[in-house]
Design brief:
Elements lengths: L1 E7 L5 E8 L3 E6 L4 E6 L3 E4 L8 E6 L2 E6 L10 H15 L13 E3 L1
């Protein structure tokens, strides 16, 4: 599975690329197709924070957290519907539970 995505880097910087789900890994490739991260699925946990409205997810690995967004964060709401659709596909593919507002800390799922 592959989707266009943006990798958050701090509060105000994002890197455009592709999120890739392989048989045993999840990776983010930048625009030059260089790997930014390549995590073993057995070592990661995924969360879909409710406040992202399924437009992105957090990937946790060895104390490191990476936030991946499926909509361009530099556009005013552009592509939110498509981003939510992509987010749902990823949530289903990863087997991650629906996160709701009552679980403010975010539901996590280990692959």
């Amino acid at each position: 599975m592959r989707s266009e995505a943006w990798l958050a880097d701090g509060l105000f910087n994002c890197h455009h690329g592709v999120l890739v789900l392989g048989d045993e890994t999840i990776s983010f490739l930048n625009e030059e197709a260089a790997s930014i991260f390549d995590f073993d699925l057995g070592q990661v946990a995924f969360s879909f924070p409710w406040y992202l409205f399924t437009t992105g997810l957090d990937i946790h690995c060895s104390g490191d957290k990476r936030r991946v967004l499926f909509a361009n964060p530099y556009l005013d709401g552009g592509g939110v519907r498509a981003a939510r659709d992509k987010g749902r596909l990823w949530r289903d593919a990863l087997g991650a539970p629906q996160t709701d507002a009552q679980a403010v800390s975010g539901a996590e799922h280990r692959a």
